[in-house]
Model the fold of this input.
Amino acid sequence: MKLFYYTAICFFVATFISNAQVGVNILSPSGIFHVDPKGDTSATTGTSDDFIIDSNGRVGINTATPSASLDIVGNMSVVDGTEGNYKVMTSDATGTGEWKRLTYTTRINGVVSASLTSLKRGTSSVAADYIYTGANITLPAGQWQIYFYCIYNNASSYNYTVWWDLCTTSTWSTPIIGRVLSYFAPSNGLSTTYASYAVAPTATTTYYVQGVAANVTPSVAIGTVIATYNSGARIWAIPIF
Done:
């Protein structure tokens, strides 16, 4: 009989422990361990001061329903000796956090030929009329603003504008990544171009600048060279945050 009572007691104790929830200052804990400092938690209200470990092992601070391994509602302070004004929490490859000053990726410079290719009279919608200038830039994944600058000669007696298209191949193809029109190129004058393109590659990508002289007045034959490189060509990009 004693053995029966002992076995029964062990069974009930084991059952209680396996289903136990520990509550501190709360009658109905919502997790394995639930602390309610103010004693004001009722269902889903009054949880702004609670600390809980739920049945999934998730820890909640100022919430009784954590949805992540560590769920914090409200302010957080991490004082490890590296904190300071204008610093952000960063992580190394193993996930260890540390406060560091925010730094910006330096600009990336592209490649330009010693002398950019001359441009021909053409139509802005005809692939064969575009000329790859010799300016390109390779960027890693991210959000970038590309800038392109150059000066071309208009040694002809015609007026025109240059269509500067940004492509991901050295031959023009659609869809183009961006398009900029140069300033009006007066006859026997200079055409200065300041072009800007916003790009967001998902992998390392090379971008090529293509050009065509269009809107020529008066009209001249397709394929006629009417724009020659003058000076100043450069292409670069800066990250966008």
